[in-house]
Amino acid sequence: MKPTLRAVAETVGVSRSTVSNAYGRPDQLSAELRQRILDTARQMGYPGPNPTARSLRRGFVGAIGVLFTSRLSYAFTDPFAVQFLTGVAEAAEHHGSSLLLVPLPGDLVGARKAVENAAVDGFCVYCAGDEGEIVDTIRARGLPFVTTSARPGAQDLWVGIDERAAARSAAEHLTGLGHRRVALLSDDVLPDTSPGLVRVSDVADVPHPTTRERLAGFADAFAAVGVTWPELTILAAADNTRAAGAEAVRALAALPEPPTAVLACSDVLALGALDTLRGAGQSSSVTGFDDIAEAASAGLTTVLQPGVDKGRRSAELLFDPPSDTEAHQILLPTTLVVRTSTGPAPRS
Amino acid sequence: MKPTLRAVAETVGVSRSTVSNAYGRPDQLSAELRQRILDTARQMGYPGPNPTARSLRRGFVGAIGVLFTSRLSYAFTDPFAVQFLTGVAEAAEHHGSSLLLVPLPGDLVGARKAVENAAVDGFCVYCAGDEGEIVDTIRARGLPFVTTSARPGAQDLWVGIDERAAARSAAEHLTGLGHRRVALLSDDVLPDTSPGLVRVSDVADVPHPTTRERLAGFADAFAAVGVTWPELTILAAADNTRAAGAEAVRALAALPEPPTAVLACSDVLALGALDTLRGAGQSSSVTGFDDIAEAASAGLTTVLQPGVDKGRRSAELLFDPPSDTEAHQILLPTTLVVRTSTGPAPRS
DNA sequence: CCCCTCTTCTGGATCGATTCAGACTGGATC
DNA sequence: GATCCAGTCTGAATCGATCCAGAAGAGGGG
């Protein structure tokens, strides 16, 4: 067993307070005594104050938690999530804090437990599908948190984009090119639907806030040129991966009149769509969302959102809580990046 | 202030033990009482047992730490590191554990402190340049750990590849194609060297173990065809990023006889090298190391190492410590993946 | 009716530190 | 010589739980 601070104190013949001060407040004791304490500590194999005990007493941990809805390991399959994490990591680093990645089990009870058991000083909630429950649990713990998808109450912290307007800009690009028969591609469309073509009677039925807003934004643009919601083809992907995107798009081949364009809710899905469509020799237009690195090399037209910034600023809201008069919510800009994956609709 | 377990106990009129049991050992009390406790707890706004206090008493945390040498945010710039993390995350998820990403400050004192202050049950050390110091600090804390670069003592846990042989395989591919005048590209070649051409009198002088082994492996293959170490051009990159790779390779243009091939110690560096070389219209061969996703689309010839596996198995060694008779060290296979970035050396 | 076992619950010790009010010392000030 | 002060160090309380030995009561078997 490793020796404790108490053991060191006894060996040196001083009080525990003094040993504690030797580590945490060098100005509270003479330099010689401090050195003597540190020396015997090293000699005894004392590894320094136990972080957990210190956290308990001090009342803070020195780590912030990052919450992903889906399986934690999935988080890394989307480069945009990685961008976000990079930003959070930058800020954490800057504040000398660690990052606790908390895997959320699929079931609500487990997820709640995971949030309750995380030893952190606050949370960055990245895209938690069923955010309400999770956020409630965090709030119950009395910890600060920042969300990034659905805009919360005015007193809550939020960093995000205007999802709907951003999606609309991509769709308007396509309507401008003459596309009228299109498919919208996303994961998390409805709970428990099998991948492929899906019927969604109303956008408002989509539970996941980000997905809902983006689909609504797409629909807005098409509504403006007279294409109504039921005329839009909805494609559900099994999850937010390139492979799932590629797979989902296969369903289009079965349609009598395949769409001339696919609007995806993320770049990974869009890239998957391109894999399938280009593989089949089709030149349908495809748009993505996020602007990850691969989007550029693949020539994907997409909506750029500043991922690293999103992460960094989220974490910073946590570290330097805004005063009552300062902004609690940060709206980041998005840009439509037009590349080669989109072109004019074929004359029909 | 949030109520504590004690407050709940007093309100319900039972002992603290009983409230504790209501959460942690439901079989230790009657179902009714438990329900009553849970109900009043909820009503009082008690968020459940404090994770830090629980960890202190129980003696374990439920999180493992992942250590990166370089700045934490850099970790995410290399897709291979992300692969590794994915694997670790999978295993952690599976064991209901969280992942603490610990940013290591550049200075040794700070780094040591970071390791000492991390509340974790064990560490996965990913490529810690000056591993010795870090590992010593972990050992001083008495925590289990797994390393992935330099092979440690036989009793220590390790998951890795035969770096030298793997590098050699890439180099042999090039010698087979007739290349004799080549450049080796890496970051972390020597401490405090400026990027660009570097003179390294002996491979053994390279401090970073992984870099050293890979360079040595490259050299092995060239030695076998009569090209000695001093004849090899060494290129140092500022860090392990695509941009740094691109930049470093620019130095080659100044040489009277530029090399016909560049062997990089990582894919991101290799991709950067390709950016510069192809941009300048040169057809020099380039090899990478890791086989990240972009390598395939860029046609990069590279050495595949199973990144996700590496992470997963590292974490598993931590979670299920091998008995004395079981293997403490796992050697993973590597494969040379030949693509279009390499070709025959031009006749001179 | 007594002994035994089982279930349910309690008290107090404990995990390993930090904190803060105060005690003691020696020297400077008036 | 009394007072004050700065510099050092100590003791006890505290952070918020978990754990373990054991008490109390209920039921069962002989």
UniProtKB/TrEMBL annotation, chains A, B:
- Asked if the record carries the keyword Transcription, the reply is yes
Under the heading InterPro entries, the entry gives: HTH_LacI, LacI/GalR-like_sensor, Lambda_DNA-bd_dom_sf, Peripla_BP_I
Q: Which UniProt keywords apply?
A: DNA-binding, Transcription, Transcription regulation
Q: What would be an example GO MF term here?
A: DNA-binding transcription factor activity
Q: Which domain of life is it from?
A: Bacteria
Q: Which Gene3D superfamilies match?
A: 3.40.50.2300, lambda repressor-like DNA-binding domains (1.10.260.40)
- Domain HTH lacI-type, chain residue ranges per copy: 3-58
* UniProt-recorded name of the protein: LacI family DNA-binding transcriptional regulator
Organism of this sequence: Micromonospora zingiberis
